[in-house]
Amino acid sequence: MRMSEDVWMRHANPWSFATRLPLLLLLTIACWSRAWIGWFFLIPLAVIIAWTFLNPRVFPKPRSTRNWASKGVFGERIMVNRKEYCVEIPEHHVKAAFALTMLSLAGAILLLYGVVFLEPLSTVAGCITAYLGKLWYVDRMVWLFEDFSENPRFKNWVY
């Protein structure tokens, strides 16, 4: 995802994070609702997908970035743009990010199975696993950012 400096800063708004967090659950409910409302499930699905793309662009820059959510976004920004920023990410962060992404992916696959076949146990277990992986990943990105927080290029991101 290519984002400008301004969009990254708005993406770091804790309100942006807080309103992105429930999207997987809402997406799950919207897809599951096809069992109750048929093809009308596409309406909430479209709204959720639109919000997913609009979210990092509609919030203002945060008043303060001295919070977990903002630092998680900053860590992710460093990880995603490491070649552009010419920074070497410590191997322990790279391995952890990969492992946690795989955990989230495993949860997403289980969740997808549960939603497709309307199987509650797989749906709940997959959703929990995907959330666990994602939130742990964000926490790891906070750690990564803290490791780079004294770098002159990134120091001014915290205010």
Automatic annotation (TrEMBL):
TM region positions: 36-54, 97-118
Record keyword Membrane present: yes
InterPro entries xrefs: DUF6653
Keywords assigned: Membrane, Transmembrane, Transmembrane helix
PROSITE patterns the record matches: PROKAR_LIPOPROTEIN
Alphabetized Pfam families for the sequence: DUF6653
Protein's name according to its UniProt entry: Uncharacterized protein
